[in-house]
Design a protein that fits this description.
The chain folds into two domains: about 140 residues, no CATH class; about 45 residues, no CATH class. Helices cover about 35% and strands about 20% of the residues. It starts with a strand and ends in a 14-residue tail after the last helix.
């Protein structure tokens, strides 16, 4: 747990989600200042989540069309207990049917809600000016970490294992500034372009193009 000044403690995962955001111009990530307003908005977002599950016995439809049975929160998809055999359920045909990807849909919806709230803070901070992220990319700490990753890969791309690695790409931004080395990969220009194309396609509804693997 990490304690921000004047706030409650946050898990590292929460801290990363709250403070790191995409730049609207596709210029990588922006580290937001932990203002009182941002922290309060994040707490409010957490409070609107499915924190008190309402479990009920449901039929869950798999992608192949078959039905499975268990107790599950009909709101967020969180499961309770093990799968239940149909022959142990009376009137199984009367149960509510829920999609197998309900939990994934809920997570995506919640993530989109937070990003929409976070966007206001991104725009405000950009208007005020920010250099934290750029400073980190030019820091001796990042350059040393980047060199370790390239050496680990013997300067061979970890995407294709054919071409020379020229970039170091983040697989996760949860620990930006204090990354685990396994969160970083060495890749070539071609693989770098491929991963950007995939990310931009997946995140088209966010700020715009995502440059989370920008060449550093």
């Amino acid at each position: 747990m990490v304690k921000l000044e004047g706030t409650d403690e946050f898990a590292e995962e929460d801290l990363g989600r709250m403070l790191w955001a995409k730049r609207p111009d596709g210029g990588g990530l922006l580290k937001l200042r932990a203002s009182h307003e941002l922290v309060q908005d994040y707490r409010d977002w957490l409070a609107t989540g499915c924190n008190e599950h309402e479990f009920e016995l449901v039929a869950i439809q798999a992608r192949n069309g078959s039905l499975m049975y268990r107790r599950q929160c009909a709101n967020c998809g969180s499961p309770s207990g093990q799968w239940i055999s149909k022959d142990k359920i009376a009137d199984a045909e009367t149960l509510k049917t829920i999609s197998a990807d309900l939990r994934e849909q809920y997570a995506k919806r919640r993530d989109a809600e937070w990003k929409a709230t976070q966007r206001r803070h991104v725009i405000q901070q950009l208007h005020e000016g920010d250099s934290d992220y750029a400073d980190y990319l030019n820091s001796p700490e990042w350059k040393a970490k980047r060199l370790k990753v390239l050496r680990r890969a013997d300067t061979i791309c970890e995407g294709c294992r054919e071409r020379k690695a020229t970039e170091v790409h983040h697989l996760s931004y949860t620990h930006v500034g204090n990354e685990f080395l396994w969160e970083l990969v060495a890749i070539c220009d071609e693989c770098h372009q491929r991963v950007h194309a995939r990310i931009e396609s997946e995140d088209a509804d966010d700020f715009g193009s995502d440059e989370d693997g920008e060449a550093w």
